[in-house]
Every structure is written in structure tokens, then in C-alpha cells.
């Protein structure tokens, strides 16, 4: 039996026979050319895995059998990313790369300097980003799906957030403790990296972030050059992970 080098998404994994949706069925049968008797690796993005044997190789409704469901060896990630809205497809690009890493949630922020179509609700961008996150989940073989939230006003997000903040700022520290180091020291609070849009956060927003009191605030310097928003997000994640 062969096993395609990819995971297949199933929102509810349980012991017994499971019918995959048309998208996953087509990928398995048409793209990976899997056949009855072959094994597929399933994931649900909620910390569960399973090896599933194909019972019926139907590209529209592939039926598989699961004998055992496994739990992920690590808990849900503590790290989040909140980024100012960007123009064009930059947010989707950020999600595609960031969601391959151990990031729990990516929030799109409407900030003073956000660049996005006027009067846009970003519904299409959010939906496409969710699909990008799902692709990244399967490709990276990680146990937890990176959630996509927003768009939300920066001030409202800050008021409702509880946890630590890492603000990307030119005056920040060149390095900060990693997520693994924080967890080892007993810090189990969520940590959110704040990345501004092109042009950065406004002075008003920076002051609001620095005055945040529902958790610790740290400043992180990303380097000596000015970075695009999409670049800054990935560099920041790399420094903390």
C-alpha cells in the first residue's frame, strides 16, 4: 500500500468509515492517483490524526476506514499574529507562509494607515485566506489549523485581547525569548506579534499598544532596514519561533 506524501483534511475524524468531501476525494484519487487499499493520512486541524485505508476510490466521495485516531503530541500553539490590512493579495501571501508555522491565529487589523479597497468588508480576502491556511495545514503536516479572524478595528481588538504583545518597532530589542523558552519557563499566556501595515502603526496606535495592561508588552526590532508589511510578518515569526 502506498501513502501519498500529503495529509488530507477531514473536519471530523472518528473510528469507522468516513466519506471525504469532493475536494479531498478529488485530490486523493485524481491528483495523487490513490486507489482502493492505499492509505491516506487524515488530519482535522484540531490536534487529531489518523491513517485511513481507502475502501471506495471515488473522486467525488472517497470512502475510507479509520481504525485508530491519534492525538497530537503538542498542545495548541501560544503564538498569534495580528497584522494591519494590506493592499492587493498581500494578506493572502502572509497567511500562506505564516500558516505553515506553529501559529494559532492570524487577525487582520484595520489601522490608521491600513491599505485596502475603500468600503471593503474583506470577506473574499478572509475566505481565500482560510483556504490558504487549510492548504498550509496539509502541506506542513502540523496538527493545528491556523485560524483567520477579522477584519477588526485596532482599538477594538486591543480592548478585547488578553495576553502578551510583541510590537514590531525600530526601537525594540534585537532578540526576545522564543515561544519554546517562554513555555519552558511556565508562561502559558497567548502571545501576539503586532505588525503594522505599509507605513507602520500610527503614533497614536503605538502609544495605545505600549500602554496595554492586560499582559506584558515587548518591542522587537526586525533589523536595520525598512521592510514591507508582508516581509515583516514572516521575519518576526522567525525570530520568535
Report on the structure:
The chain has 241 residues and is an alpha/beta fold. The chain has two domains: 7-71, Hypothetical PUA domain-like, domain 1 (Ribosomal Protein L25, Chain P), CATH 2.40.240.20; 79-240, 3-Layer(aba) Sandwich (Alpha/beta knot). It has helices spanning 22-31, 90-98, 123-140, 154-160, 179-184, 203-210, 229-240; strands spanning 7-9, 16-19, 39-43, 48-56, 63-66, 70-71, 79-84, 105-110, 147-153, 164-173, 191-195, 217-220. The strands form two sheets. Strands 1, 2, 3, 4, 5 and 6 form a six-stranded mixed sheet that branches. Strand 3 and strand 4 (48-56) form a beta hairpin. Helix 2 packs parallel to helix 7 (229-240). The chain is elongated and about 60 Å long. The model has no long low-confidence stretch (mean pLDDT 94).
Can you tell me the CATH architecture of the largest domain? 3-Layer(aba) Sandwich
Q: What name does the CATH topology of the largest domain carry?
A: Alpha/beta knot
Sheet having the most strands: 6 strands, mixed
| Tally of structural domains | 2
Helical percentage: 25-40%
Mean of all residue-level pLDDT scores: 94
Q: What general outline do the C-alpha atoms trace?
A: elongated
Radius of gyration: 20 Å
Instruction: Flag low-confidence runs.
Output: none
**Could you name the CATH class of the largest domain?**
Alpha Beta
Number of helices: 7
How would you spell out the order of helices and strands? EEHEEEEEHEHEHEHEHEH
> How many strands appear in the DSSP assignment?
12
Structural class: alpha/beta
Alpha-carbon distance between the two ends:
36 Å
Amino acid at each position: 500500500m502506498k501513502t501519498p506524501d500529503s495529509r488530507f483534511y477531514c473536519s471530523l475524524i472518528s473510528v469507522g468509515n468516513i466519506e471525504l468531501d469532493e475536494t479531498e476525494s478529488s485530490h486523493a484519487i485524481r491528483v495523487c492517483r490513490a486507489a482502493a487499499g492505499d492509505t491516506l493520512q487524515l488530519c482535522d486541524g484540531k490536534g487529531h490524526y489518523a491513517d485511513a485505508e481507502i475502501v471506495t476510490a471515488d473522486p467525488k466521495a472517497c470512502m475510507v476506514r479509520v481504525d485508530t485516531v491519534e492525538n497530537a503530541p503538542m498542545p495548541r500553539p501560544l503564538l498569534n499574529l495580528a497584522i494591519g490590512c494590506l493592499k492587493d493579495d498581500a494578506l493572502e501571501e502572509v497567511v500562506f507562509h505564516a500558516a505553515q508555522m506553529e501559529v494559532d491565529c492570524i487577525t487582520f487589523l484595520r489601522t490608521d494607515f491600513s491599505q485596502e479597497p475603500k468600503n471593503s468588508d474583506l470577506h473574499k480576502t478572509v475566505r481565500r485566506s482560510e483556504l490558504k491556511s487549510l492548504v498550509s495545514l496539509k502541506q506542513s503536516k502540523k496538527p493545528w489549523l491556523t485560524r483567520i479572524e477579522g477584519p477588526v478595528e485596532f482599538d477594538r481588538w486591543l480592548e478585547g485581547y488578553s495576553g502578551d504583545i510583541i510590537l514590531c518597532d525600530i526601537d525594540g530589542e534585537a532578540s526576545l525569548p522564543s515561544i519554546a523558552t517562554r513555555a519552558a519557563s511556565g508562561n502559558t499566556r497567548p502571545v501576539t506579534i503586532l505588525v503594522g501595515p505599509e507605513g507602520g502603526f500610527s503614533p497614536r496606535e503605538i502609544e495605545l499598544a505600549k500602554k496595554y495592561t492586560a499582559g506584558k508588552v515587548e518591542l522587537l526590532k526586525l533589523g536595520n532596514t525598512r521592510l514591507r508589511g508582508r516581509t515583516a510578518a514572516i521575519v518576526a515569526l522567525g525570530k520568535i519561533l
